[in-house]
Design goal:
Strand content: 35-45%
Protein name: FeS cluster assembly protein SufB
Distance between the termini: 40 Å
Pfam families: SUFBD_core (PF01458), SufBD_N (PF19295)
InterPro entries: Fe-S_cluster_assembly_SufBD, SUF_FeS_clus_asmbl_SufB, SUF_FeS_clus_asmbl_SufBD_core, SUF_FeS_clus_asmbl_SufBD_sf, SufBD_N
Family: Belongs to the iron-sulfur cluster assembly SufBD family.
Organism: Roseimaritima multifibrata
Radius of gyration: 22 Å
Number of helices: 12
């Protein structure tokens, strides 16, 4: 049964996602990270030898690498985390197959209702495993694959192995190594050539247990001339101890294909959110990241597009909202590795009540990528004197004939704006919320209507108690 968290237990702002579910689970690994835990995970999943070796090699890489000396402060004991919790014995094909207490959780989050109204398929992950999955029948008949990554390893081993770990190798960074060692769940999508998926596919990730780590692994392959929109959301209740979310997302967008990947991140304010996301876009393909970060204690996430062949396009639209005790170290990376490629980054950040937002971005033009075009726009809105915003833009150009633009602005809510709105009968909170909603409009208008409504509502929740 799901129970609301009492006020005395709360760390941050109250929101409707802050409830816990009493579940027993079918297996919980001992706390801590070591070879025994990894072998246990591999045994339970009955994995092939190459994947077990992949995990063990990744553990060595994680142990060998130092913590990054940049980004946010990570005060986390990696031996004080549960790395694997299996909530059910098998994945449900209907919601009736899902245990009542877990189904109730997703009912409260509105997932089954959204599925009926406007989604082409859903994956729902609870702790370490996907507990429910669906895909419209007509898409399955066209050859679309939408399953969890563990099932893909069993059912489509050759296809998975061809791409798994090729976009983001184990040794890419310390947290991709951690994910590679203990990954579980996540989404695997394959869209055959020429197939266009009209409605979004969605995955929802829920952490319920205390001191829990969630390490989903997502791989999306959009074949030539195909298109897909994938949406992910995530929440967790608040506890007095920190939890960890460290995902890896790899996307392959082949010639003339299109992929949009939308994230609405609303983790509880006690979670470290350390994620690696990267796409390779080939000839005349388009990759779009739409990235909204509202929750977590610390987020370090920089979605990337590597434009591999002429005509490829990468677009990244991100928003970061930080309040008391939060640091959103977010940003974007665009790498032009071929001529006549185009990239755009639009980054918006809002800081209030002492929150800190950072834009950390990279634009790189490799030798030979002539006639590339790239523009970066970073805007920061700071709502009070205690809050902070930083910008760390890196631009590396190794070709002469290119166009690169960078704009940045930092602003506060103007007294004239507030005076005007207050004189029209709005409260201070209503007025500042209206201004913030206008500030993030470029992101919200790119979302499907249902998600735009949810984003505006989340912003409204975050703004409660704010002063202009």
């Amino acid at each position: 049964m799901a129970t609301d968290v009492s006020e005395k237990d709360q760390i941050g702002d109250i929101n409707k996602y802050n409830f816990r579910t009493e579940t027993t689970g079918v297996f919980k690994a001992k706390k801590g990270l070591n070879k025994d835990v990894i072998n246990q995970i591999s045994d339970i999943k009955n994995e092939p030898d190459w994947m077990r070796k992949f995990r063990l090699d990744a553990l060595e890489e994680f142990n060998r690498r130092p913590m990054p000396k940049w980004g946010g402060a990570i005060d986390l004991d990696f031996q004080d985390i549960f790395y694997y919790l299996r909530p059910t014995s098998e994945q449900g094909r209907t919601w009736d197959d899902v245990p009542d207490e877990i189904k109730e959780t997703f009912d409260r989050l509105g997932i089954p209702e959204a599925e009926k109204k406007f989604l082409a398929g859903v994956k729902a992950q609870f702790e370490s495993e996907v507990v429910y999955g669906s895909l419209q029948e007509d898409l399955a008949k066209q050859g679309v694959l939408f399953t969890d990554t563990d099932s893909a390893l069993r059912e489509h081993p050759d296809l998975l192995r061809e791409y798994f770990g090729t976009i983001i190798p184990t040794g890419d960074n310390k947290f991709s190594a951690l994910n590679s060692a203990v990954w579980s769940g996540g989404s695997f999508i394959y869209v055959p050539p020429g197939v266009h998926i009209e409605f979004p596919l969605q995955a929802y990730f829920r952490i319920n247990a205390e001191s829990m780590g969630q390490f989903e692994r997502t791989l999306i392959i959009v074949d030539e001339g195909a298109s897909v929109h994938y949406v992910e959301g995530c929440t967790a209740p608040m506890y007095t101890t920190e939890s960890l979310h460290s995902a890896v997302v790899e996307v392959v967008v082949k010639r003339n294909a299109r992929c949009r990947y939308t994230t609405i991140q609303n983790w509880a304010n006690n979670i470290y959110n350390l994620v690696t996301k990267r796409a390779h876009a080939y000839g005349d393909a388009t990759m779009e990241w739409v990235d909204g970060n509202l929750g977590s204690k610390l987020t370090m996430k920089y979605p990337a597009v590597h434009m591999m062949e002429p005509g490829a396009r990468g677009e990244i639209l991100s928003i970061a909202f930080s309040s008391a005790g939060q640091h959103q170290d977010a940003g974007a990376k665009l790498v032009h590795s071929a001529p006549h490629t185009t990239g755009q980054i639009i980054s918006k950040s809002i800081s209030k009540n002492g929150g800190r937002s950072s834009y950390r971005g990279l634009v790189r033009v490799d030798p030979g990528a002539h006639h590339s075009k790239n523009s970066v726009v970073c805007d920061a809105l700071i709502l009070d004197p205690e809050s902070r915003s930083d910008t760390y833009p890196y631009i590396e150009v190794m070709e002469q004939d290119v166009q690169i633009g960078h704009e940045a602005s930092v602003s506060r809510i103007g007294e004239e704006q507030m005076f005007y709105l207050l004189s029209r009968g709005l409260s201070e909170t209503e007025a500042s919320t209206m201004i913030v909603n206008g500030f993030i409009e470029p992101l919200v208008k790119e979302l499907p209507m249902e998600y735009a409504v949810e984003m505006n509502r989340l912003i409204q929740l975050q703004m409660e108690g704010s002063v202009g």
